[in-house]
Amino acid sequence: MRDFSQSNDWLSVNTATVRKSRGQDLPLTDIIEACVRRDIQVISPWRDQVAAVGLNTVSRLVKKYNLKLSGYCRGGMFPAATVAGIQAADADNRQAVDEACELNANCLVLVVGGLPGALAGQAVHKNIAHARDQVLEGIEKLLFYAKSCHMPLAIEPLHPMYAADRACINTLEQALDVCDQLDPGQSGALGVAVDVYHVWWDPKLQQQIERAGQSRLLAFHVCDWLTPTRDLLNDRGMMGDGVIDIPKIRSWVEAQGFQGFSEVEIFSTENWWQKDHSEVLDTCIARHRSVV
Ligand code: ZN
Questions:
Q1: How does pLDDT run across 180-215, given as a tens digit for each residue?
Q2: Distance 221 CA to ligand 1 centre (A)
């Protein structure tokens, strides 16, 4: 297993981790400058953060500082209740691929969506099987486009508590079934993002990481699972503060030949987003060296 204890070489910061500093929105340009000052050379930005300061501005900074993107967050949200809704999702996803290409990201992360309307508070139906069919169709269409741009797609299975509103792909096994169906040749164009927060509990995790193999393992996200968890979305823990055996999962991923970045992704309304971003980034660096 790689030694992370001496450098930031394999550390990536998902910029949602410091989207707020002392409770206030922190622009992506400031986040980038703060990362560069700490010799963090890899980031994974969110589309809304990029849009807020402008794609051209971010692209210029990425080139100026020779930054790498471990991923781009995010595409997906494929299911819809109407033809127009499906078409809008498809168009938005192609746009996400274009942005990922402009920023030279390693992959576009896909949070695939759940029951239409559920995220806004009112699902328009209860047919999760149908939503999963629409996800498969959506990824198939997007894969065709992404391949033409040479942008890999990384399906991120989300913890089952998000099945209704954010992602109806909830295990690594499910995600890999989609990969095998749409990309049987393991071309590298379609794979998975393994986020320890979502998959740490899965009794089949090691087995499915082995099934994925190097060609499907496109991204590795770290944070921790707190007990108790106070919020379904925005109470992720800093690595080392929870119950996930992160080094064990990393050892399984690296045993398959994964040599990519370890991306710190923490959403934390009540804790880390209330602290100054300097403290958060310094803590990310320290924990990445000591407990990842
Ligand atoms: Zn993630």
A1: 999 999 999 999 999 999 999 999 999 999 999 999
A2: 5
Ligand 1 centre distance from Cα of residue 218 (Å): 12
Calculate how far, in angstroms, residue 25's C-alpha sits from the geometric centre of ligand 1. 20
Residues 230 and 104: their CA atoms lie apart, in Å, by: 36
How far away, in angstroms, is 195 Cα from ligand 1 center?
A: 5
Map out the domains of the chain as residue ranges: 11-290
What phi-psi label fits residue 207: left (phi over 0), alpha (psi between -120 and 50 degrees) or beta?
alpha
Pick the CATH number of 11-290 from 3.30.70.20, 3.30.930.10, 3.20.20.150, 3.40.50.970: 3.20.20.150
Q: Which pLDDT tens digit goes with each residue over 65-76?
A: 999 999 999 999
Residue-wise DSSP of 37-67:
HTT--EEE-BHHHHHHH-HHHHHHHHHHTT-
Ligand 1 geometric centre to CA of 156 (Å)? 7
Do the beta carbons of residue 84 and residue 27 sit within 8 Å?
Answer: no
